[in-house]
Design goal:
binds flavin-adenine dinucleotide, 6-stranded mixed sheet, globular, alpha+beta, FAD/NAD(P)-binding domain, de novo design (two linked rop proteins), 4-stranded mixed sheet
Length: about 575
Amino acid sequence: MVGGLSLAVAGMEALGFGFASAQDAPPTLTGGSKGKSVVILGAGHAGMTSAFELTKAGYDCTILEARSFAGGRCQTARKGFAHTDLIGNTQVCDFDEGQYINHGPWRIPYHHRSTLHYTKLFGVQLESFVNDNDAAYVYFEGGGGPLAGKPIRKAQIAADARGYAAELLAKATNKGALDADLSVEDRDQFIAYLVHEGRLSPKTLAYTGCDGRGFASPRGAGVNPGPGVASVPFALTDVLHSQAWKVLSSVSEDFDQQRTMLQPIGGMDHIAKGFERQVGRMIRYSTVVQKISQGSDGVEVFFTGPQGPGSIKADYCICSIPISVLKSLDLAISDPFRAAMDQVAYAPVNKIGLQMKRRFWEEDHAIYGGHIYNDIPGIRTISLPSSGWQGQKGVILGYYAFGAEAAAVSAKSPADRAAFALAAGQKVFPQYTDSFETAFSFSWHLAQYNLGGWAAGRTGATSPGPAPIQCCASRTGACIWPASISAIWADGRRGRLNRRGSRSASCTRGCRLREENVDARQHPGADDQRDRRPSSGPGQRSRPVHRLLFGLPPADRQGDPRRFPGPGGGRLRPGR
Ligand SMILES: Cc1cc2nc3c(=O)[nH]c(=O)nc-3n(C[C@H](O)[C@H](O)[C@H](O)COP(=O)(O)OP(=O)(O)OC[C@H]3O[C@@H](n4cnc5c(N)ncnc54)[C@H](O)[C@@H]3O)c2cc1C
């Protein structure tokens, strides 16, 4: 199921409810539901999907949700949306009616079948999300040569980089440099492919530009302007040193970023509202879970709710509380399980919405949606809205950065974050600052009930071993633990986990969580043997913030692209 979806379903599967996959079809639950109760922790997509499916199967579900609203990370900031972060900044969104920013999830790939199943079922209307735009600018100031620090159309850099690469390869192949690897027939076909791919001259195999990179003088009807004037390609050396080629694999290479991409009309939280219409009656809002204990007769969850402290007993518990929060709660778990949880790092992630009084990117630059990829630290991605075409105003995503850069920007006040974003965007669009009206920023690592955007890797890991994220997604006794621990995308990453190695095999080989589970259930007192940490609701923590809350790796690993694979390191990646 969700996050989200498929991992929660994977967890229910672990209870023996008997379905094989949640990727592209709703699960058919077959367990013995009669009179059985399930307490579900968290009303994000994972928790609400669990409640929806289990209720259909006859289970009696209750959801405990810390926030006063459902949806978890699936939020949309529009007029009146209020948020106070962990360092005390309170913001109330002041966008015009109809304007919004999805400061959490924002796009649905065409292959996220679970998510698309529920959007259809709940009547959540979708529209295209422009995830790639040939006309959008690329802006790299860290490179060298005349293109550094200049906005360049993606189509130009793509045509030239690919054209020159095809030319060099075609000429080398023609000279026989690849004869050891290609048969004569293959060599001819390969050259034909390169001519086609790079728009080369079939005679000279030279790249001299192409229509796809745009025109110096645009085409038009009649004789004036007529067929237009071709644009002149950048020099190969300038393309190479600009570093702008880093964007070229950013979208199409990554399965998660491929077109067609979708978004709910009017804001991502319409998906959450769709679920809430189904299971809202089961949700106890503003109810903060603090302790989970298990005994031979099921599970008891202790919380603080609107009426003060309380507890609820159930036959089963599905926990979708993010592990970044869960690790600070009072839990009946084994030491290996806790050790695995402690190794899971959550990424600092920032977004900011900037309301502009004029859609200058459309009117002055002919850019309709898409992303301005850049190498400005703390900014990395500027995104233009995929709706409201040719309207008066629009909300731009002013930055979307991860890791240490995000942690640094989030330390600023909301006003200073906006100023930071504006100064950066001004480098790309001269109209930026003058068009700005109001901003709303969100830092997921400073959100009390998330403490990070998503599980981003392992903290302080020094040796290879079973991924702790995979080990933690398991069942112990009556509890299914972080049902959405790998919730990098709302649709879940189950297929990817399986491609890298069987999750259950890893657990058995490494942490032996399933076996230990049984112990926890048979020995309810096992709780007392573990290393008790200062108890805590979220917000009361004794360990260094940058290790525990923000999930940052040790200082010497910060910026390591393996930890925070984002635009900051190595290959440019567009995020979630
Ligand atoms: C910036 C960003 C961009 C993203 N972009 C995309 C995207 O484009 N597409 C996509 O598919 N996915 C995206 N994701 C991932 C997606 O948001 C998640 O996979 C999904 O929302 C996870 O759902 P969940 O229910 O597992 O977790 P959550 O939504 O985090 O739900 C957990 C719930 O537990 C509650 N909770 C926490 N602590 C307690 C407690 N102590 N007691 C009770 N309740 C508690 C929380 O309030 C929350 O409601 C993005 C995430 C972020 C942060």
